[in-house]
Every structure is written in C-alpha cells, then in structure tokens.
Amino acid sequence: MKTEATLDPRMNAPHRYDWMKLVAAVLTALIGFLFAAPMLWLLVASFNTHATLSSFNLGFSFQNFVKVFNMQTFGLPIVNSLIISIGTSVLVVTFSVLAAYPLSRFRSKTTNRTVNAILFASCLPITAMMVPVYGIFVQLHLIDSLTGTVLFMTACGLPQGIFMMKNFMDSVPVTLEEAAWVDGATRMQALFHVVVPLMVPSLLVIFISEFAGNWGNFFVPFMLLMSPDKEPAAVSIYTFFGQHGTVAYGQLAAFSLLYSIPILIIYEVTNRYIGNQTLLAGAVKE
Amino acid sequence: MNSSTRKKLINAEHYTPILPAAAMMVLFLLGPIIWSLYASLTDYSMVGSTAVNPHFVGLKNYVALFTDPVFPKSLWLTILLILASALIGQNILGMVLALLSQKAPRRLTKVVDSIVVLAWVIPDIVGCYCAYALFAGGGTLDALGKVVGADWSALLYYHPMTIVIIVNVWRGTAFSMLIYQAALNDISKDVIEAAEIDGANAWQSFFRIKLPIMRHSILTNLMLITLQTLSVFSIIIVLTGGGPGTNSSTLPVLAYLEAFNFSKLGYGTAISVILVVVGALFSVLYIKLLRTNDED
C-alpha cells in the first residue's frame, strides 16, 4: 500500500498544487497592489482640502467637490467633452454602417483592397501626425473649432469602426435582405430596415468603445482647440490646474475623479454584461 | 454602352455608401500625410513672414534633422521606450498576469485583473496626474523616502526615462494581459493534459506547448503595443515635459516641441514624416500577419 501511495501522482498532487497556488496568490496580490498604488492618490487627495501630491496626507471633506462643481470650472468642459464624444461616436457609427455594408456583401478585389487600406489606416500613429494635422487645420481655418475637431476625430475613429462593423455585419445572414428585395425594397432600405435592427448590440459596442476613447482623448483637442471655453474636460484639467502657479491638488483630484465617472460606469457595465475582452475592440486605435 | 462598362458602373454604384467615410479619411488622414511631405520641404513656421509665405527649402529640414545631435538621441529614447516598456515590460508582465490568473485563487485574480484594467481605462490625463503624484517632488514616493531615509525628491529629474517607462508599463499592461488571457483560454485542455501525462513540467508545458500555440497572438500583440508606444505623448508631457533638457524627448515629443515651442513647423513636420513611415512599415507587417493568420 505504501509504495503504491507514493507512486500514484494524484496522492502528491494536492500538496504541490497548494504551494504553487500560494506563490501565485502572493505574486498576484503584490502586482495588484503596485497597480492600485498610483490611483490611490486620486481618492486621498480629492477628499482632502489641504491635499498635496502625497497619498499619505489624509483628510476628509467634500469641499473640493463643492469648489469645482460649478458651471465655469466643471460644467462647460464636461459639456464640451459630451459634444465631442457623442458627436464623434454618432458620426463614426453612421458612416461605418454605410461603409461596412458593401464591404460585407460584395466579394471582389475592390473589397479586399479597401479592407487592406482601412486596416492600414487603423494603424497610423495619430499622435505622430498631429503636427502636420495642426498645419493643415490652420490652412483650412478649422483650428479652434469644435466641428473641425469632431470631424478629425471621426476620421481617426473610422478605420477601426468600419473594420469592426464589417466583422459584425458578416454574421448577419443575407437571406433576410433577399426577402426584403423580393418585396421591392432598395439596398439602402434593406440595410436600415432589416440589417441595422439586427445589429443593435454591435452598434452599441462600437458606440461605447468610440465614446470611451474620445472622452479620454487629450492630445487631439489639446492641439486643435485654443479657446478655454471650447476645451473638453481632458484639456481643461491640464490647462486650468496644470499651469496655474499654485496648484490646488485637492480640486484637481476631485475634478479628475468626477471626469472619470462615465468611463468607470462604462467599464463596469461592459465588464459585467459583455466581458473584459470587449474592451480590446476599441483599444487598438489608441 | 457595352456590357463591361455597364458592369463597372453597377459595381461602382454598389460601393457608393463608402463615399462619406472615404471622403473623411482622405481629407483628414491622407491629407495631412501628403501635406506633411510638402511642408517638410519648406521653412513653414508658426509666426513671422514664413507663416504666411513659406519658401521651398528642399531637403534642408531633413539635413538639419540628421545632423542635429538631438535626433539620434531622441530616436534612441523612442526605441528604448518601445523595447523596455512595451516589448519587455507590458508583454512579459501581461503574460505573467495571464498565467497567474489561471493559477491563483479566482476571487483574487478577478480583483487584480480589474485593478490592472482600471489603470488602462482611466482617461489619459487622469492616469498621467496619478503617476505624477507618485513620482514628483512632494509626492508619495518622496514622502516614503523621507521615512526610510532616502532622498527621492527629484526622481523625475534624475531618472526621467526610467519613470516614463514604468508609467507606460502601468498604463498599458492590461492590453497584453487581456490578449494573452484570451489566447490561453483558447488552448485546448486536452493538449495540456496530454503533455502532463507524458511527464512535461510547468516550464516545459509553457515553453514547448503553450508558447508555440500562442505565437500568432504574441506577434500580433507585440506589433500593436509597439504602435501604441510609438504614440505615447501625454505621459511624457505631463511628467517631464520632455526634459530635463531633451533627456526624455521621444520623437513625437520632439516633433511637438520643435513645432510649437521653437516655432519650427517644417522641422517638426519632417520628424512626423519619419514617424509615419516607421508606423506604416509596422502596419504593413501587421496586415501581412493578420492575412497569414486567416490562411491557417
């Protein structure tokens, strides 16, 4: 019996397994702590009226939130952020539906080449292009214009949007549209009355990932907008707090926290209902 | 009208819904690239007479760029950032986290995964200020240094690049982790079990079985995180401003500083052209990779 026990790997396995599990748990917890550490400051400082940059400086008050929560400091930048993010996301989804339709339905050399070009465009380093984009915007008199900024951000979101949309549309069977054609519907009618209603969840995924990306975008509006009253929250955090001699760190943290809330909600909702992996879909372009 | 032209017309009509999107991309993505090729050959500037009436200067900007000692330094800093923070840092830490989430207790990995993803989804500028508060003088590490008796008041001055690399690992690891978690989950349990029955230990099962199966995911991930890191800007601007001097000015930051702080738009644009070319090469590689994936 004894020899049999030591030879049977299953008898030894639980012990070794537990040891591995412990090491894995400790390592995971350590990495988790290191990743959480920088974000702790946001919580600590936003609730402290005399906040510094240090996370050890504790306090408790809602004063910072009260101070930033007014039209000038918070309201206007958030409204600008909403205009930019929603405007861009709506345009990206609309243009992507239109563009993805022929790419999904017609197999040809043109389709292949177009899809390749779109993939190529989705990899362009937008940050690296911002100096020439600024130059061209000056020439076109689009600098310091919310419309111009939305149009540029739409163009940046389109390659990714079309590519995702095409993949989603590929899984909608053609037979349903054919039935609509028989009843005399045009291609566009079939698209908007048959295909699009079937794709609502996919449209939402693209809209949400676009919205999240645009809400957090700092560099593009930072380069293309000049007037403080047009700046979205991402830029106003930098210009208002970052460049005023004595920085009110508590207010900076409180503002940052409030500004992050939509992203945190989106993150929690997608995480709960669709899974973390969905976030990948929208992340590639940044 | 003969039948082949009619066919072509019908074909063209099929593709008309692409036009709005195509127009946007041509105007705002292709436009700046073509414009930058032209502007990099001029003395275009932000202010003064050359702002209104730029002159053609040929390859002067490129010659200036390649003879400027700042350029090779900046190029090296860009490569260093990609190597250290993306290809080594995010990639390996992402893989470690993906493997750990298969071994460590379920509840713990769920919490830690959320934290890692949170560091990635918080808005860019917020993440940058969090990192700034950790490393800046008067920040958390400075305070911690005073407790343990070390002078950590000027970390950003003495180790700008190291900190930028650490911050980029912090911000971006979630991406690699999610890709590798998905790839590991896709590996059939039978294959791993068969290897274990044949006596493979954990190392062998990882290096000989899992890694080869995941090679496409890994290559795709490396390509994407390289492209993402090539675009890192806010971290550097908020934490170090590219300094001290040019000690943390990667190419995108250098292009921005030259164009706006030193008003040399042509020169900054020349840097952009080089970056776009590098990015384009990576994109072509990436598409080739995706296509070979499809054929498998």
Automatic annotation (TrEMBL), chain B:
Membrane topology: Multi-pass membrane protein
Domain of life: Bacteria
ABC transmembrane type-1 domain mapped to chain residues: 76-286
Main location: membrane
InterPro entries recorded: MetI-like, MetI-like_sf
Gene source species: Bifidobacterium asteroides
UniProt record, GO biological process: transmembrane transport
Alphabetized UniProt keyword annotations: Cell membrane, Membrane, Transmembrane, Transmembrane helix, Transport
Record family assignment: Belongs to the binding-protein-dependent transport system permease family.
Transmembrane regions: 21-41, 75-100, 112-135, 155-180, 218-245, 265-287
Pfam family, one: BPD_transp_1
Subcellular location: Cell membrane
Name under which the protein is recorded: Sugar ABC transporter permease
UniProt GO cellular component terms: plasma membrane
